[in-house]
Specification:
Chain lengths: 264, 229
């Protein structure tokens, strides 16, 4: 099976569909056309760039460079999580809670996979380490952003209910528990849905890519499964860490609800 | 031998008694230690000037002031819902000597607008409340909170707050949404609770007649200062 190489013209054709969508958004006054175009442009520039960077890295296999790239990916993902919050924590917390939870979950799951499951030699072989980490970061990012956003937004909207419970002598943990549960669920639903629908409703992106690039379907399916399990656990652990530290930060040492710690 | 030891012990106890009597004589603790009195020392929610106020057992102090002057902020701070300066005391115990939830159970703060987190009314009550005392029907426990009128919500909130047996009451216009008949029921119910518990009350009201009926001293917030009228 030969690989059909994409020409710049092919990509331009595909991108015209996004332009069409932006045009529609503008006509229907949905107000997302700017965001949509910027995101599309960013993805184009970033992916071409990372293509070059990976080519360079794969040729060198220098652990220091790989570590640097991993850190860069993490810091950008942390920024993305922060910017998707309607009401984020003020100060360093706004960045820190998301980035730290992502670091804990993505890096630990990626390392376990490299050391125990895939065992490439050396373990940081960039062909494995970088795409794996990228997949994990990209998905935990979504989960953590969703659940943190849900947590802070609901706490803001339901502040009177939370305080009513505090006033009756409930502690902060009790008063926020149902909001925490909902927030965590909202972060996990996308990956649960995509696992449940995988193969029946949709062919997952990575598997599609591998098949298009010429891999045998069964091999592609096995890798897809591996990635899905990793993503599910990474997203779950990351969202839990984020919700746990986020809901701690919402209250102070006297168990007061401190919404002044969120941006207006 | 044993007689000497006992005499020594006896002497020691007598000295201790004398010391105790001395300390009691020169402190307020002696007079008020058993009474649930609310004391505020240099107390201020961050927007008001520091306030010193003592509300005695069984005393009701009314508070008024233009909207936005900080009445609710003061009550919120006493209930330790907001950061504040100074200390609130219940008898001889300062608020920060106990965990915040315990303090809030002792302080019955009734916000102007009640909040409900479960769908049905009954789930907010640990035990069956005395509904008929405030003119409410038994069936109201089964109805969804969303179906309640503002007056029903307010009366239920009073019952819910009193159910935790608070030792101080902080009431933010508890009868604002009620007609004269139900206003009377709520006032009587609250004052009856005060009679048997001795709880000091800080009562925010705009109604001069209500002030006359329930209050002993009256304070007004004006230009960030809490002044006795």
């Amino acid at each position: 099976m030969t690989l059909i190489t994409l020409t710049p013209f092919d990509l331009a054709l595909a991108s015209s569909l996004v332009l069409l969508l932006a045009l529609l958004s503008w006509r229907l006054q949905l107000g997302v056309e700017r965001q949509l175009l910027i995101a599309a442009l960013r993805s184009a520039v970033q992916l071409i760039l990372i293509g070059f960077v990976l080519k360079l890295l794969f040729a060198q296999s220098n652990p220091l460079l790989i570590g640097l790239l991993a850190l860069l990916m993490l810091s950008v993902a942390g920024y993305e999580v922060m910017s998707r919050q309607q009401r984020r924590f003020t100060g360093l917390w706004g960045y820190g809670i998301g980035a730290l939870s992502m670091f804990l979950s993505s890096f630990s799951v990626a390392l376990i996979t490299l050391w125990v499951i895939l065992q490439p030699d050396p373990w940081y072989t960039p062909q494995y380490a970088i795409p794996l980490l990228g997949m994990l970061l990209g998905n935990t990012m979504t989960g953590i952003a969703l659940s943190l956003d849900n947590l802070t937004r609901t706490a803001w909207d339901k502040r009177h209910q939370i305080e009513a419970q505090l006033l009756l002598g409930h502690d902060a943990r009790q008063a926020i528990s149902s909001i925490r549960r909902d927030a965590l669920r909202s972060g996990l639903i996308p990956i649960i849905n995509s696992m449940a629908a995988a193969g029946i409703v949709s062919l997952p992106g990575m598997m599609t890519g591998q098949i298009l690039a010429g891999s045998p379907p069964l091999e592609a399916a096995k890798y897809q499964l591996l990635i899905m399990f990793l993503i599910a656990s990474g997203t779950g652990l990351g969202s839990m860490a984020a919700i746990w530290s986020g809901s701690k930060r919402l209250f102070d040492e006297r168990q007061r609800l401190r919404l002044d710690r969120l941006t207006k | 031998m044993t007689i000497v030891v006992e005499m020594k012990q006896c002497a020691r106890i007598m000295v201790q008694c004398a010391e105790l009597i001395d300390t009691l004589r020169f402190s307020n603790a002696y007079l008020f230690s058993l009474m649930p009195q609310l004391k505020l020392k240099h107390f201020s929610p961050l927007i008001l000037e520091p306030l010193n106020l003592v509300i005695d057992e069984g005393e009701t102090v009314t508070l008024s002031g233009p909207s936005g002057s900080g009445k609710s902020m003061l009550l919120r701070a006493i209930a330790d819902l907001d950061p504040h300066n100074g200390t609130a005391w219940l008898g001889e115990t300062a608020a920060d000597e106990m965990p915040a939830p315990q303090w809030r159970r002792k302080v019955g703060y009734l916000p102007a607008e009640s909040s409900w987190w479960e769908e049905r009314v009954g789930l907010h009550f640990a035990e069956a409340p005395k509904l008929d005392a405030l003119g409410l029907a038994e069936t109201i426990l089964h109805s969804p909170v969303a179906h309640l009128s503002s007056g029903e919500r307010q009366r239920l909130a009073v019952l819910r707050m009193l159910q935790q047996q608070p030792q101080i009451l902080l009431l933010d216009e508890p009868t604002a949404n009620l007609d004269p008949h139900h206003t009377q029921l709520v006032e009587e119910w609250i004052l009856k609770y005060q009679q048997h518990s001795g709880a000091p009350i800080l009562w925010v009201t705009h109604d001069p007649e209500q002030r006359q009926r329930v209050g002993m001293r009256h304070f007004e917030i004006n230009d960030k200062k809490v002044i006795q009228q």
